[in-house]
Amino acid sequence: MLDTMETLCCLAGVVGGEDEVRDYILERVMPYADEIRTDPMGNLMVFKKGAVTPAERVLLCAHMDEVGLIITGFSDDGCLQFDQAGGIDRRVLMGKPVYVGPDRVPGVIGARAVHRTTAEQRKKVPPMNEMFIDIGADSREQAQKSVRLGDLAAFSDSVVRFGDGFVKAKAIDDRAGCATMVELIESELPCDCWFAFTVQEEVGTRGATVAARNIQPDVALVLETTTAADIPGTGGKDPVCRLGGGIVIPFMDRGTIYDRQLYQMLGRLADENGIPWQTKTRIAGGTDGSAMQRSCAGTRVAALSVPVRNIHSMSGVATARECEDQYRLAKLFLEEMAK
Amino acid sequence: MELTELTRTLCTLPGPSGFEEPVRLWLEDYLKDIADEVRTDALGNCIAFKRCGKPGAKMVLLDAHMDEIGFVVTGATDGFLKFAMLGGVDQRMLPAREVRVLTEPPLFGVIDVLPPHVLTAEEKEKAFEPDKLYIDVGLTQEEAEKLAPVGTPVVYASDFLELGEDKLCCKAMDDRACAAIIIKAFERLSRQELNVDVCCLVSTQEEVGHRGAAVAAWDIQPDTALVVDVTHGKSHDWRDAPCVCGEGAAIGIGPNMNAAVAAELFALAKARGIAHQTEVVPGGNSGTNAHAIQVSQAGVATGLISLPLKYMHTPVEVICRKDMDAIVALLAAYVESREV
Questions:
Q1: N or C: which end of chain B has fewer CB atoms below 10 A?
Q2: Closest to A92 (Cβ–Cβ): which among B113, B165, B313?
Q3: Between chains, do A134 and B318 touch, taking CB under 8 Å as contact?
Q4: Would you kindly state where each structural domain of chain A is located, as residue ranges?
């Protein structure tokens, strides 16, 4: 489970450029799929038959895209201008390496030496349009030899396991959910199920919007990650959820009020099977569930989210236990749907 | 070892100010095959000598510092490590930063940040306050206190990157790139017949006030010293920085440098076609070990040659490989041309 997620996290799939992730998933699931669909957006939809065909059409959903940067210009001295692709707190960008475009050209987000900054400058973080990527080019022409406008830049793909079962990687949001779905497809399923690996979740659940219309599920379970603020020094900020506190079953976020029956069913299944779970204590974030829920004549939706610290940064942190429990609980959900 | 490889090896070793031992041990091992004598002093300076064998020979000292900026653990809260700075850390580099906690074996850590989802618009505009940041090592309070006690040093975890055609990027380029330079020059000189003794000093605790070089220079008592450190190179957000990456060795002039030594460095660079530029250093403190060495004992004729570097004291310090070659050539030229 963790190996699959780590492999997926290392792939570049910045929003709008999910191809590498889709190609890998396709290769993994091809031998196990009964039907495969793609669409003009780049979504990958996989159907697999299970032990029974339930009365309701069931869909599991996870997004392939990750947050990153998009190249918007070149400066005369060979640096790259950029904007965010998906929501990024710009304060995590300074002094970080990035890999630009299909050739993964290495670059770093530079910052004027602290020696020659004013106290005022040190307390502020420049706006993104004043930041730049240095790829070691000395002129615009030289930079344009290896990078094109619109190229996407991804964060470092190093994955580290550390501490008591923790893992650090970029793009855990939402390769965790993709890994759960890949491994489910590779297993024997209790019931027929559609799996939607979606694109462009990070810019407004745009892939899910059309994937939902394509499959028209009755019930959708979104396999996601969610923000954890369970760190010290926050002056009493709401932690939202905690690493080690169990898989998150949200009742509501900014996009969706989740189906009450499904929410309660997932909580009961977790309790009955000794899977620790928690819900979010703050109405924040959103998932593909919002698009799925309001698609066509409507869909009942629920979500299972892995808590992640530093989500939307290059250094997301999650626990192996909660990644594995997402898989276990999703499987129990399918067993329940088979009844 | 080839210069880029040597730089890569040195930069990726952990050695913040006061905790340089891993770097020193590596240097001792590497230098013992080149030098006549390698020794370590009370502050952990690594000092290597090559004697010319001529009676009454003068001594030229080559200096670069081995320490890097970093952190030290000052406590733990809920298993997260509190830390203080070692040297001039840029606090804007800290959010979502990966670090190595220098325990045995080292622990991986991430400086966690609050997600934007729970912040107000006003909070999102301000830099994170360093005294409210903690290192996440994925441990319980009890484990954290046991494995990473107060006083444990920490460094940035950065990959060594080759950027473009001729740029190198890593943490600790300041000043391991220059350590690599003086070692290459020392290596080259060690194979030649010389008229002077050469001392290769890779010094400690520069980032906290030139402390290592001060005591080493006292002990070595050189006649001349050439200090090699980094200086600011122009960058996109600092177009009028004093020097330019790729335009060669930056020869320092000003009160902290001996005028005759500087003049000779310029003359040699010109005569031998070594790429060079001028760095004017006003005042008595160049912010390098030259500050301490110049006034050691009864005074040392001190020159400063700098390697232009972009984004100093960040985990992504960038230098130009060509400038390193130029400085190696200039150091060698200076020592070779000493007369009896």
A1: C
A2: B113
A3: yes
A4: 2-66+170-338, 68-155
Do B146 and B284 contact (CB within 8 A), yes or no? Answer: no
Contact A323, A1 (CB under 8 A): yes
- Asked if B80's CB is within 8 angstroms of A309's CB, the reply is no
* Inter-chain residue contact B97 with A107, CB threshold 8 Å: no
CATH topology of domain B3-68+171-336: Aminopeptidase (3.40.630)
Which residue on chain B is closest to A128 by alpha carbon? B125
pLDDT by residue (tens digit) across A175-209?
A: 999 999 999 999 999 999 999 999 999 999 999 99
Distance of alpha carbon A107 from alpha carbon A129, whole angstroms: 17
Query: In chain B, which segments carry CATH 2.40.30.40?
Result: 71-156
Q: Which residue of B has its CA nearest to A317?
A: B110
Q: Which CATH class is domain A2-66+170-338?
A: alpha beta
- What CATH number belongs to A68-155? 2.40.30.40
Instruction: Give chain B positions within 8 Å (CB) of A110.
Output: 235-237, 310-311, 314, 316, 318
| Residues of chain B positioned with their CB less than 8 A from the CB of A115 | 88, 232, 287, 312-313
Q: Which residue among A96, A130, A164 places its CB closest to the CB of B139?
A: A164
Q: What ipTM score was computed for the predicted complex, to two decimals?
A: 0.92
Q: What is the fold, at CATH topology level, of the domain defined by B71-156?
A: Elongation Factor Tu (Ef-tu); domain 3 (2.40.30)
B28-76 pLDDT, tens digit per residue, is 999 999 999 999 999 999 999 999 999 999 999 999 999 999 999 999 9
